Amino acid sequence: MKLLISNDDGVYAAGIRALANTMAEAGHDVSVVCPDRERSATGHGLTLHQPIRAEIVESLFHPAIKAWACDGTPSDCVKLALWALLDSPPELVLSGINQGANLGTEILYSGTVSAAMEGLIEGIPSVAFSLTSYTSKNFKTAANFAKILVEKLRLKSLPDSMLLNVNIPAVESSQIKGVKFTRQGVRRYVDVFDKRIDPRGKTYYWLTGEVLEDVEPPVSFNLSENIPIDVRVIRDNYISITPLHYNLTYADGLKDLSGWEFQFK
Fold first, then answer.
1. Into how many domains does the chain fold?
2. Residues 207, 79 within the same domain
């Protein structure tokens, strides 16, 4: 398959090298276009008020891989690849493997998910991969599962307007209990801004905080309570696959609002 791979951790991140090299070794035609530096938590930002530059990267990936480092956001990278850098569209856009989970409401901030979402917006099936650890450097299990999933997608296409958000526990393959299709949980943070003073006496703030993983999603989201939640299955060493789409319309909300009346004079 012809694959486009991006991320938000930057071109030197171990996760994207593991993903891209594994796919190239499996015989896929791989192109990499990713940020030239860390661009985590940038969401779906696009660069509109300054030029975007992309430089060819050599000797960092498998020899068969064509790679560029871009000074834009993850979404910029995918859009630039599709409209300017690649000679033909890929069959699949992959993003990751991210260093750290993208679970629950974290997907709204995630550059990893946004890169995959950009592919989906352009009509290309897309998958975001994340390793659920900020410290583990062992991406082998996650990369091997990505290879298995891509092979499945080669044989069975995704429905239109769907991307897969995949989170893999940071454990050995022998410890993975299985794969579960999940609904998005609510990963809420208790945010704290640490107030500090720089060497020139100016005040600045550093965002810190604690994650609360066990916030139950509202049942009005029209999903069965029997479908497991992404933030929970990961704890039991299951791989979580959550189908996502870019249509944020709140269907139950339309029902609730249908009785509202407005009068204009």
1. 2
2. no
Task: Identify whether residues 152 and 40 lie together within a single domain.
Answer: yes
The pTM of the whole model exceeds 0.85: yes
pLDDT in tens, 71-106: 999 999 999 999 999 999 999 999 999 999 999 888
Does residue 148 sit in the same domain as residue 44?
yes
Neighbours of 176 (CB within 10 A): 16
Query: Does residue 212 carry a pLDDT above 90?
Result: no
Examine the domain organization and report whether 110 and 70 are in the same domain.
Answer: yes
Separation of CA 114 from chain center: 6
Kindly state whether residues 33 and 130 are assigned to the same domain: yes
Reported as a single tens digit per residue, the pLDDT across 26-47 is 999 999 999 999 888 788 889 8
Distance CA 168, CA 219 (A): 26
260 inside domain: no
SS (H, E, C) the chain: CEEEEECCCCCCCHHHHHHHHHHHHCCCEEEEEEECCCCCCCCCCCCCCCCCCEEEECCCCCCCCEEEEECCCHHHHHHHHHHHHCCCCCCEEEEEEEECCCCHHHHHCCHHHHHHHHHHHCCCCEEEEEECCCCCCCCHHHHHHHHHHHHHHHHCCCCCCCEEEEEECCCCHHHCCEEEECECCEEEEEEEEEEEECCCCCEEEEEEEEEEEEECCCHHHCCCCCCCEHHHHHHHCEEEEEEECCCCCCHHHHHHHCCCCCCCC
